[in-house]
Specification:
Length: 465
């Protein structure tokens, strides 16, 4: 009886239709069924989007090339920006389906193109792949929960005075898929990402519809709608699709994450470092703690940073605090330098000689940037300041391209030195001014001064213990 497999195209309810209040012609109990189901669907969608970030990040981590990795990162950004809109449109489609129950004598219509079960017709490869995936999802729900759905459809027909073949159940899995496909049309995603999102929709929304059907049947049964129908069997927990997510943490001791996993978290955050104007509000330690909590919930075990890795995070944080407090560094450049904290943490984790070797390319690059900034001084017009533009390019290159190969610092250092030395050679300085600049540059190794200050403070703290 699963006539839900054939679904009606969804049309947006017009203002005039809403004004005539078609819902007034629906029984009050049906609105209770609708609202109860909407609450569960909303929770399912929220779970979908809450977990989409982790899933796409894992896919990006497994990507075979930068292009493929960027596809997943872009999808993460797109979902974050549009999730509220997708949730809203999904529920609008859901409510509109109930409005149509009161508007038409028959709500049967042609199968919508998005869920056309006839895959033998000529379709673009991506569309055909999506159609096959959706139909498989619908069939799994019907195989698993079809008995309860049939009972619900029969009760809705009896409640509305319709024949069994004259009603498309707005709570059927094909309808749920259609609502979601309509809502997600605003996403410009490649087919591989669309299929991942559809899998998450099945995992967090469709996998729980047995509860939705049970509650809807119970509401209708309570007012005497077809009371003689045999109850649907209760689905065992082991029959549910694998959620791959656990809601609680075990009581075992905390488990340190590996340096490699920490680098993955940092690479994830690196994609979302704020613009210079907002970088002061970006607390790296807090952001890492939030991600670590999500990892803990997902793994079911309390996760912490390894002791050595945590020392690196804290030391680099102290160094940046000290550098950004330096009055010799122009404020406009402080905002750019502040965006380099994650790349510097990563290179310190990857290369243990970072703190001990003053000639390390990452340290030299930071010092050269500071030297050039202090030599130039403050500038109000950033867009026309060639130095600001050049430093911004260096920062953006590190944020975009630095994953786990520290060689990028050597490359950027060589490029930056070539540009700044070329600019200096074009400046005709008087001998005394040239000597003054040289003395100033000798005294402006920003990172080295900050490191010396931090180490001195740490030594004093240790002596005081």
């Amino acid at each position: 009886m699963h006539n839900d497999g054939n679904v009606v195209p969804l049309h947006k309810a017009t203002t005039d239709q809403v004004a005539h209040s078609p819902l007034a012609r629906l029984p009050a109990i049906l609105l209770q069924v609708r609202d109860k189901a909407a609450q569960q669907l909303r929770h399912g969608l929220q779970a979908l989007f809450d977990n989409a970030d982790d899933t796409l990040f894992e896919m990006a981590d497994r990507a075979h090339c930068d292009v493929e990795q960027n596809i997943f990162f872009q999808a993460m950004r797109d979902l974050r920006l549009k999730r509220k809109s997708i949730e809203r449109v999904f529920l609008e489609q859901f409510f509109a389906a109930f409005i149509r129950l009161a508007q038409y004598e028959s709500v049967l219509a042609a199968l919508p193109h998005a869920l056309d079960a006839d895959t033998s017709t000529v379709q673009p490869d991506d569309e055909r792949e999506r159609t096959v995936a959706v139909q498989a999802m619908v069939n799994r729900v019907l195989d698993r929960d079809g008995f309860a759905l049939d009972q619900l459809t029969a009760r809705l027909c009896a409640l509305l005075g319709k024949e069994p073949g004259d009603l498309h159940n707005p709570l059927g899995p094909a309808m749920f898929c259609e609502y979601f496909l309509q809502a997600a049309r605003q996403l410009g995603l490649e087919i591989k990402v669309k299929l991942i999102i559809l899998t998450l929709f099945e995992r967090y929304v469709l996998s729980e519809v047995d509860q939705l059907y049970a509650e809807a049947n119970q509401l209708l049964l309570a007012i005497g709608v077809l009371p003689d129908l045999k109850p649907a069997p209760v689905r065992r927990t082991t029959d549910r699709p694998d959620q791959s997510v656990t809601g609680g943490l075990t009581d075992e001791g905390p488990d340190p994450i590996s340096t490699r996993d920490l680098l993955r978290l940092l690479s994830h955050l690196q994609q979302y470092v704020p613009a210079p104007a907002a970088v002061d509000d970006f607390d790296l330690r807090n952001q890492l703690e939030l991600l670590l909590t999500r990892v803990s919930v997902k793994s079911g075990r309390s996760r912490v940073f390894g002791e050595a890795d945590e020392d690196v995070i804290n030391l680099v944080a102290l160094l940046f605090e000290c550098m950004l407090d330096d009055r010799n560094l122009p404020d406009s450049l402080k905002a750019l330098v502040g965006r380099l904290q994650i790349p510097l943490v990563k290179v310190a984790l990857l290369d243990k000689s970072f703190f001990s070797r003053s000639s390390h390319p990452a340290r030299r690059l930071l010092n050269e940037i500071a030297n050039a900034a202090m030599e130039r001084g403050a500038c109000d017009d950033h867009e026309r300041d060639s130095l600001y533009v050049r430093i911004d390019q260096v920062v953006q290159r590190l944020l975009n391209d630095f994953v786990d190969d520290p060689a990028i610092f050597s490359e950027l250092l060589a490029d930056f030195l070539a540009v700044t030395q070329d600019e200096r050679s074009r400046i005709d300085l008087a001998p005394e001014l040239r000597n003054g600049v040289a003395r100033m540059l000798d005294d402006t190794l920003l990172f080295e001064r900050a490191l010396e200050s931090v180490i001195g403070n740490l030594k004093r703290l240790n002596r005081g213990k």
